[in-house]
Amino acid sequence: MNGVVLISGNGSNLQSIIDNAKSIDLKICCVISNRTDAFGLKRATKVGIPCVALDETLFDSKLDFDQEIMKVIDNYQPGVIILAGYMRILSADFISKYFGKILNIHPSLLPKFPGLNTHQRAIEASEKKHGASVHFITEELDGGPVIAQEFVNIDSTDNAQTLAKKVLDKELVLYPKTIHWYTQGRLKLIDQNTATLDNRTL
Ligand code: GAR
User: Pairing between strand 27-33 and 80-83?
Assistant: First the structure.
């Protein structure tokens, strides 16, 4: 399956997807970043994947920016759009155009801690467990149906940095595995609140 990956930063999830692409039946056609300095762009370039970096400060509105990104995406007719550390809220037009085709990984056990600073917030809430979630994108921010999660324990010695590292290590395995379910046609978004794996509601 052809896929486009959207990033904003370091791109360690992107790297894991690149490393596993063959075994998960994915061809990464293009990497798009909303930040021209995202290190992930270097990772993609190194293995010959076309990259597009758009400077978001040059656009008048969120929709203008997303329309430009949609043009790039449509050149590749991807079967899946993979958000891998893409730190920008998508416009409603974008989400409805690709409904059921957009996957995201979020560094918390959703529905706990949508949004930013998830690791610090989990520590401050005295959580014992934390983790990462892969979910479909719907209009509700970080609110689309969860597909799969991985857990880590929060130890008394953890801070936001150590916890982020523990969670990221889990993400690097969880995301390719979940993307593979999608490329195999096993995973479907039925409506705003429902996803299925092998026709069973998740
Ligand atoms: C990852 O931890 C990912 O879950 C998170 O950003 C990090 C990106 O790291 N995504 C979000 O917070 C999305 N709301 P990476 O660029 O090294 O893959």
Answer: unpaired
> For 71-74, which contacts have Cβ atoms below 8 Å and span 24 or more sequence positions?
72/4, 72/30, 72/32, 73/4, 73/30, 73/32, 73/98
pTM of the model: 0.97
| Residue ranges around ligand 1 (CB below 6 Å) | 7, 9-13, 40, 84-85, 87, 105-107, 132, 168, 171
Neighbouring C-beta atoms of residue 9, cutoff 10 Å:
18
Q: How far does the centroid of ligand 1 lie from the alpha carbon of residue 106, in Å? A: 7
First to last CA, the chain: 23
Structural domains in the chain, CATH included, are 2-201 (3.40.50.170)
pLDDT digits (tens, 9 = 90+) for 60-102: 998 999 999 999 999 999 999 999 999 999 999 999 999 999 9
